[in-house]
Specification:
The structure is a homodimer of 344-residue chains. Chain A is an alpha+beta fold and 344 residues long. The first copy, chain A, has 2 domains: 8-149, 60s Ribosomal Protein L30, Chain: A (2-Layer Sandwich), CATH 3.30.1330; 165-343, Phosphoribosyl-aminoimidazole Synthetase, Chain A, domain 2 (Alpha-Beta Complex), CATH 3.90.650.10. Chain A is 33% helix and 24% strand. In chain A, helix 2 (69-85) runs parallel beside helix 3 and helix 4 packs across helix 5. The first copy, chain A, is globular and about 65 Å long. At the A-B interface, helix 1, strand 2, strand 3, strand 4 and strand 5 of A face helix 1, strand 2, strand 3, strand 4 and strand 5 of B. Strand 2 of chain A pairs antiparallel with strand 3 (48-57) of chain B.
């Protein structure tokens, strides 16, 4: 990172936009017109358009004390792409608006956009528009993502069927444990600024928090295997919260098996350092950006081939409720303990 | 307005979203799936998709001391629709994200959304998604609008031709004068809270500031008259700034005639109360949300029929520069004095 500091005011709003977007190369044939006009034009050929948006506010969704701007830019894109994949769609474009206070330099913004463009490159998505303005306090980020899906192949939350298998991708709960480490080190840093952060050996959980990925591979696998989930969403608020969404919107109950919840060894060790239960992290921790979905039992043979997918339970009738069977054999109702920014 | 106050925390995030969106009725056949899932699905039949986004921050873009929340909701939508019309496209969907601090009640949010839905109704646009979160300070609004345009009928800023007529819709500069009144009354109110605001007789200019409309009628007129402008954009930062955009992006010069700039009588009187030049308000004031566009001289006969359109000048070669001919016959270079939030 350069130590230069160029004040944003030296560029002006339009100069800043030009500065930040001059290296964009559009990747999709459908990106007919990108940044630089009132709106972006996207062409579709018999495809359906999928659109999602997220608003990220400093001090609410991220803490710049321990979040490198490059990672923040990357993650701001990823969380939206994850929503597009959760529809069984392929993201094609994003728009990005940011509100910034004058404490940010052009170099700082460059770092942020480096992360944005890295995510766009990796997922073959075009940044096609946005808005750049000032904020009175803190950094504000709004991303909208647009995707394509073959007509009627999109997957909602409300269409799970009784008897379906409940599945998740990857490993759960690690991002939350990563956050605990970062918050701990922040507290130590504030109390004793001279002390170096001790994040040794925790790169897995911290990486899951600061630099998540979206599960494009799972969507590609569905297409290649001719699988269409009956219901799907991404796991951003914790497994409990998402299971309750699918059950409520599909008007079903469900049984979840604790022993089937995929938990990485590194996360388990890290959670024990905080003397917290890894299962609780998976159930109530947020920001995993894995996928949760349901498939008919008849499709099970196709999923077995994919090590990134775990069957964690099955859907029941609504009268049977939403339960977890613990490793000890206990049966407990699942309650929502996902992140709730508004309750803070 | 009700005097009840329901704390947002009593609803929770999802309860709040449900509360705010439960009355949505989708208007467009293309709105296949709206609020309530990870993303919205939009179907298009051989149309191109147009998308634009704006981020509005309290204290930067609006002042709640004199902006009724209902008007703010309305305007937040309008400014984005205006960008879609400026592409010669028809808006079909919006997404809306808001960040709110706990000083807002559910009733206050209801008022805001009433305005949002009023704009959606009037312009036949569907709200299909969004995000609701907390902010540490102030209200944050991010709107993304999506529109359709017949393939290759969209109009950019960069395609004006030498010799084209330069045209604008409606009347310019009034929103800025309205803002001056509101800021004056705010100052008086802060100094002497007992004094009633004196906005008598200024409903035109204040209405232009607080409750602008988007020029759907102009786009409809183009379609009915078989006119496609060579270049177009909306006037949000002032006439000077937008003319410079079109000239720079089209690599042309231009002559603007002061006497042709459309200025409403009510605005002229109001400007004189502040002892400012109405022309300066039109050139440098923002937030008019009128359209500026260029057409070949051969299309002039078609425009004459529309009283809402004024020819204000013509495009020249780039070597001839960008000038205004004043009423006194003077010739002055046009410089950008539009609103620049980042320079504040």
């Amino acid at each position: 990172m350069s130590t230069e500091r160029t004040e944003i005011s030296t560029l002006g709003e339009f100069g800043l936009i030009e500065h930040l977007t001059k290296n964009i190369e559009l990747q999709n044939a459908s990106s007919v017109l990108g940044v630089g006009d009132d709106a972006a034009v996207i062409d579709h050929f018999g495809k359906q358009t999928v659109i999602t948006t997220d608003l990220l506010v400093e001090g609410v969704h991220f803490d710049l004390l321990y979040t490198p701007l490059r990672h923040l830019g990357y993650k701001s894109v990823i969380v939206n792409l994850s929503d597009i994949y959760a529809m069984n769609a392929t993201p094609t474009q994003i728009t990005l608006s940011i509100g910034i206070s004058n404490r940010f330099s052009v170099e700082a913004l460059d770092e942020f956009y480096e992360g944005v463009y890295a995510a766009c490159d990796k997922y073959a998505v075009d940044l096609v528009g946005g808005d750049t303005t000032s904020s009175q306090k803190g950094l504000i980020i709004s991303v909208t993502a647009i995707g394509e899906v073959t007509p009627d192949k999109y997957v909602k939350r409300s269409t799970a069927q009784k008897g379906d298998l409940l599945c998740v991708s990857g490993y759960l709960g690690a991002a939350y444990v990563g956050l605990l480490f970062l918050e701990r080190e922040k507290k130590i840093y504030i109390e004793s600024p001279g002390v170096q952060p001790d994040l040794e050996g925790e790169s897995y959980v911290i990486g899951r928090m600061l630099k998540p990925e979206a599960r494009k591979d799972i969507i590609d696998f569905f297409a290649a295997s001719d699988v269409v989930p009956t219901a799907m969403m991404d796991i951003s608020d914790g497994l409990s919260s998402e299971i309750l969404h699918i059950c409520r919107q599909s008007q079903l109950g469900c049984i979840l098996y604790e022993e089937k919840i995929p938990i990485a060894e590194e996360m388990k060790k890290a959670a024990f350092k905080f003397e917290i239960d890894p299962t609780a992290c998976a159930l109530s921790g947020g920001e995993d950006y894995e996928l949760i979905f349901t498939i008919p039992q008849s499709e099970y043979d196709k999923l077995v081939l994919n090590e990134e997918i775990s069957v964690v339970g099955y859907m029941t009738g609504p009268e049977e409720g939403v339960y977890i069977i613990t490793k000890g054999g206990g049966k407990h109702a699942i309650t929502a303990q996902g992140w709730n920014h508004l309750a803070q």
